[in-house]
């Protein structure tokens, strides 16, 4: 409902939609796949009685880590990226403001990859606030693996997210993320250290996080490897498929035992 304009302010609208889908479909379903534990908790809160399986959708194996870097490789111009729909709930404006507040701001090349209704607004604000190079707009999907591997940091400022494929692709490419902490977003589950988190819409805190990573290149290259291993172990498509098959087998066994 967050991007539904005035409808998101209608009392009970979200609750009604949960009820409607349960009444129309999910009351007949015994097992439900959710991409994150946060969504499972939302369904449980709205009285969905089926067994819930929190299984990541996974990321494409095309997103592989770059070759390990040395601390000496972290030098200007620094490259910071964000990826996702250019819309209000993704809050890319927070990232633009943060770059303008960074001590390293003039040495940062910013790429915001995506399309959406906020594109012209973001381009206008970036032009006014930033003196360093900025790219905002669509990037072909086949170029994204290489683009991500060329970045020093990935920022995900969204305040609403069911899972966030862009963060999975980023950490799978060996890029350290900085992720907004929001009650409506599950993306913060990908953060392995507090330096990878900031409070949603807090541009100054995000700026501080960006500066910290760029000031600590040894920690940055160390965490790049940790994030790449974490992504491969937990969020690869292969891992997700194995868990999904287990859910299917459990459902089939229950059905056969009751008929």
TrEMBL record:
GO terms for molecular function: glycosyltransferase activity. GO terms for biological process: carbohydrate derivative biosynthetic process. Residues 79-219 form the Glycosyl transferase family domain. It holds the Pfam family Glycos_transf_1. InterPro entries: Glyco_trans_1 (IPR001296), Glycosyltransferase_grp1 (IPR050194). Keywords: Transferase. SUPFAM superfamilies: UDP-Glycosyltransferase/glycogen phosphorylase. PANTHER family: SULFOQUINOVOSYL TRANSFERASE SQD2. This is Group 1 glycosyl transferase. It comes from Bifidobacterium tsurumiense.
């Amino acid at each position: 409902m967050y991007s539904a304009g005035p409808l998101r302010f209608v009392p009970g609208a979200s609750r009604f939609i949960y009820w409607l889908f349960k009444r129309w479909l999910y009351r007949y379903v015994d097992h439900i796949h959710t991409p994150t534990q946060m969504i499972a908790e939302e369904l449980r809160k709205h009285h969905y009685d089926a067994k819930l399986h929190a299984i990541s959708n996974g990321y494409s194996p095309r997103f592989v880590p770059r070759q390990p870097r040395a601390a000496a490789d972290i030098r200007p111009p620094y490259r910071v990226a964000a990826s996702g729909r250019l819309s209000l709930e993704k809050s890319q404006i927070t990232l633009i403001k943060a770059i303008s507040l960074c001590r390293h701001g003039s040495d940062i090349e910013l790429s915001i990859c995506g399309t959406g209704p906020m594109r012209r607004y973001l381009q206008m604000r970036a032009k006014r606030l930033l003196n360093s190079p900025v790219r905002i707009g669509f990037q072909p999907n086949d170029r994204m693996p290489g683009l991500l591997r060329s970045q020093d940091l990935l920022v995900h400022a969204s305040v609403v997210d069911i899972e966030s494929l862009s963060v999975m692709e980023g950490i799978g490419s060996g890029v350290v993320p900085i992720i907004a902490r929001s009650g409506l977003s599950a993306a913060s589950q990908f953060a392995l250290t507090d330096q990878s988190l900031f409070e949603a819409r807090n541009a100054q805190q995000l700026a501080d996080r960006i500066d910290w990573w760029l000031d600590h290149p040894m920690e940055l290259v160390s965490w790049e490897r940790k994030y790449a291993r974490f992504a491969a172990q937990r969020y690869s498509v292969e891992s997700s498929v194995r868990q999904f098959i287990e859910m299917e087998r459990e459902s089939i066994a229950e059905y056969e035992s009751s008929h």
